[in-house]
Amino acid sequence: MENLLLIAFLDVKESVRARWFVVYTLVFGGLIALFFIAGVTESQVMGFSGLSRLLLMYIQVTIVILPIFILITTVRSISGDRDNHILEYMLSFPISLPQYYWGKIIGRFTTVFLPVFFAMMLALIIGTIKGAQIPWNIFLLYSGLLFALCAAFLGISFLISSVVKSSEVALGLSFFVWIVLLAFIDIALISFMMQKRLSEEVIIAISLINPMEIFRVAAISLFDPELTVMGPVAFYILDHIRLSLFILFSIVYPILLGLGFAFFGFYIFKKTDLV
Asked: Using an 8 Å Cβ cutoff, are 255 and 226 in contact?
């Protein structure tokens, strides 16, 4: 356990000193500041205003940029250590493979989740100073969704990093995964729906596999229970699943998915050549 936490601490320390972490933190913190400066809390949409409106916009932007940030900054965790011979050096110490692998995951999860969470906390602090009402239900839901989304894409990143030895190939593959999950699946499903080539049940099942689609639907569901602004796929999901059950699923499933990818990545990691 001591070595596990040591690896996690070293990864956090390395990440905090890296340029990508500074950019990563400034982007999400800057979004909150920009929304306040732009007067988002003074606007109203679908009956929601104040911090509720701000958090809605924050989460809509986050769904696009957070996964690619996680993939790009994390996918080189193992492959980069292998390229720079850091992995060989680390394993020369009395550190086991599980301690190294899971320590890296714990450390990297800390550095990708806390900045986006603290950005929301910053919004609550500024809102409190300005006398705004705090939407705790939305804040707690979004915290859970962000936690789950980080877990899912962290697992995907470590799987890619374990399978692919080249950092350049890993970056290209991570970008491909992001594009597919962000847009391609939705476009393909809408096309199949219009052509009636797939049944509603199959479309729902495919949609529920995509963690980004689940995040998107769950995030907007508190504001638009009918999901009229989310398109037919989201409408079909809520039409067949109760909202409370779907919100629970939207948090638990991505976490389990991320753990599954992480365990699969570890299985491959310990079976392949380490250097």
From this structure: no
Per-residue tokens: 265: 């990545």
Does pLDDT of 235 surpass 70?
Answer: no
Q: How many CA atoms lie within 13 A of 256 on its CB side?
A: 8
CA-nearest of 54, 58, 32 to 43 is 54
Question: b/e map of 237-273 (b: 16 or more CB within 10 Å)?
Answer: bbeeeeeeebbebbbebbbebbeebbeebbeebeeee
| pLDDT tens digits for range 185-233 | 667 766 766 677 767 677 777 777 888 888 888 887 766 555 444 555 5
CB 51 within 8 Å of CB 123: yes
Q: What integer pLDDT is reported at residue 238 of this predicted model?
A: 66
Query: Which amino acid type is present at position 4?
Result: L
By CB neighbour count within 10 A (0-12 exposed, 13-18 middle, 19+ buried), where does 126 fall? middle
Rounded to whole angstroms, how far apart are CA atoms 32 and 119? 7
Q: How many residues does the chain have?
A: 275
Token pair in block for residue 214: 């689940």
Chain-centroid distance, C-alpha 184: 18
What's the maximum distance between 2 C-alpha atoms anywhere in the chain? 60
Alpha helices in 95-196 (DSSP H): 97-129, 136-163, 167-179, 185-195
How far apart CA 211 and CA 145 sit, in angstroms, is 10
pLDDT in tens, 71-127: 988 887 787 777 777 777 777 778 888 888 899 999 999 999 999 999 888 888 888
